[in-house]
Amino acid sequence: MGWIWGSNNSANGQDQLDPSLRDFLRKEAPTGPKPTLPAAPKEKEPPTEAPTTSQQAPTEAQKPLVPPQSQFQDGRYADLWKSYTPQTVLEDRGKTEQDRLRDLVDAFNDKKASIGRAATENCAVEYMAQFECFRNPSTWWSRGTMCVAETRKFNRCQELQSKFLKALGYMTMDERSPEQDERIQMHADKLYQQMKQQEAEMDKAKEEGRPVPEFESVLSRRNIVQATGGTPPSSDTVSVADIGKPSVLDDSDVWSQIKPEARKEYEKKLEALSPTDREVERMAVVGELRAQSGVAKQLEQAFIEERVARMKRREAGQATFGDTIKTLWGWD
Q: Residue 67: CB partners within 8 Å, gap ≥ 6?
């Protein structure tokens, strides 16, 4: 198939270029042999005789090791990657104890702020309905009430989505990939949609005069597993934060670490809510307290490491001015 402006074209299109431009490109074209990449290392052929068990070695171990940053994972340029150090490791080496503590606190604050952004993304439909109402109200009632109905729906969606994210462990400082965070965000939206469906069925039953159906909590283990696409377990009384995390503290251990005064305030706040909202609020509080407990443990470990490093510098006669001040203040 030829070009639109002609069919008598050469294979590379040079005939359509201006003569002066064609001569310039021909003069400036690189000359000489083209560089070639080294061939992949050849694997040694197995010996004819079967070697003993002690002489056998896995094939993967025979290949030169290269970091994941290398484009050639078959072992090419392995000698150039021997002295490679990731940029994150280099940056961490130059940080002081105060810098590491600051990074930990900043990471927790960023994680806490990301809950609002994730909840807003899950409530995109409600947000667009509110935006369209503000821009062009469909009824006189919406114009007169300043879109209070749409605003109420959006605020409730964002509030519940934030609580679901906290209950699912979105605030914890565990090492997770962006895909895992996105999966938690998706599960929170599934639980919110399930909660909306249950509320719609309950309202319809009230209008028709039928008995109001009873549903288990959306944060029960059975509903969590259904939202994640797994197999429902035999018991549905386990909290969502304990799923797949046998090492984490249960609810009683989390509440035991809270001061009695603060715990009474939490319980008083929960008593004023409906049974459905009470369970959601309780799981959100537990998830937030568990995240704060994890950060407190990491800070405690960082303080211990900082104290050990300070003692080593003092024993080696390399104590800094800050180390002296902390020693005078009794930080040791």
A: 81, 84, 86
CA dist., res. 190 & res. 196, Å (int) = 10
Residue 194: which residues within 8 A CB-CB, separation 6 or more? 218, 223, 227
Q: What is the largest CA-CA distance in the chain?
A: 91
DSSP 42: P
What torsion, rounded to 10 degrees, do the Cα atoms 116, 117, 118, 122 define? 100
Distance CA 33, CA 44 (A): 31
Contacts of 159 (CB under 8 A, 6+ apart): 119
CA atoms within 13 A on the CB side of 265: 5
Extract the tokens encoding 260: 């009695």
Whose tokens are 């211990």? That residue is 304
Question: What 3-state class would DSSP assign to 277?
Answer: helix
Domain boundary assignment for the chain: 94-198+253-312
Q: In 3D, which of 154, 158, 185 has the Cα closest to residue 171? A: 185
Half-sphere exposure of 270 (CA within 13 A, CB side): 17
pLDDT, block means (10 residues), the chain with 332 residues: 49 71 77 67 58 49 71 83 82 77 86 91 93 88 86 93 90 84 91 89 89 82 67 41 40 71 81 81 84 84 81 80 72 64
CB crowding 138-166: b at 16 or more within 10 Å, else e: eeeebeeeebeebbebbeebbebbbbbbb
Instruction: Give exposure, 29-64, as e/b (b: 16+ Cβ within 10 Å).
Output: eeeeeeeeeeeeeeeeeeeeeeeeeeeeeeeeeeee
Q: For residue 56, what is the DSSP state? A: -
The pTM for the full model equals: 0.64
DSSP-derived secondary structure letter, 39:
P
The one-letter amino acid code at 283 reads M
DSSP states of 201-239: HHHHHHHHTPPPP----TTSHHHHHHHHT----S---S-
